[in-house]
Backbone:
């Protein structure tokens, strides 16, 4: 049954496009009229708008950040895919493959070092010296600012 529903949507892209014109982003209604579930209709409607390029380290990092932002709730892969310009399925598969293979964040060591150095400087009552910090951890200043996860109550 699951494959039949996918085939209906795949064969009738013109019909899907007409329903999108008619109902905008009411995927519940579009799914009903297409005889499929809303997520499949939405995913099919978005096909062709997704990136086919290879994943970069920045893409991987952003994917992990977006998935982590869901903490204790279920991850909305369609929303994450929309933010990354990829399909929700591609994001879900990429994320779970990385988890299964135990592939760590290539910046994790730098993140830990950056956070420790920021905390050290703040605990001494110093203002964070990003130029010195970047040399100490081996990243450029902008990357240090990007990966820093220390919140001292002020905007970075």
Residues:
């Amino acid at each position: 049954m699951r494959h039949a529903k996918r085939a209906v949507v795949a064969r009738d892209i013109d019909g899907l496009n007409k329903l999108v014109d008619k109902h905008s982003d009411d995927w519940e209604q579009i799914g009903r009229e297409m005889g499929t579930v809303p997520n499949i209709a939405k995913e099919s409607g978005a096909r062709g708008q997704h990136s086919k390029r290879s994943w970069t380290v920045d893409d991987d990092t952003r994917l992990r950040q977006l998935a982590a932002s869901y903490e204790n709730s279920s991850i909305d892969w369609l929303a994450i895919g929309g933010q990354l310009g990829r399909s929700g399925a591609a994001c879900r598969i990429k994320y779970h493959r990385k988890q299964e293979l135990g592939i760590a964040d290539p910046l994790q060591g730098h993140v830990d070092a950056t956070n420790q150095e920021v905390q050290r400087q703040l605990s001494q009552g110093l203002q964070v010296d990003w130029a010195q910090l970047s040399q100490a951890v081996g990243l450029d200043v902008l990357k240090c600012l990007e990966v820093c996860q220390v919140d001292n109550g002020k905007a970075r």
Observations:
- Residues 2-46 form one domain.
- The chain has three domains: 2-46, 57-101, 108-147.
- The CA atoms of residues 27 and 38 lie 5 Å apart.
- The chain is about 65% helix and 0% strand.
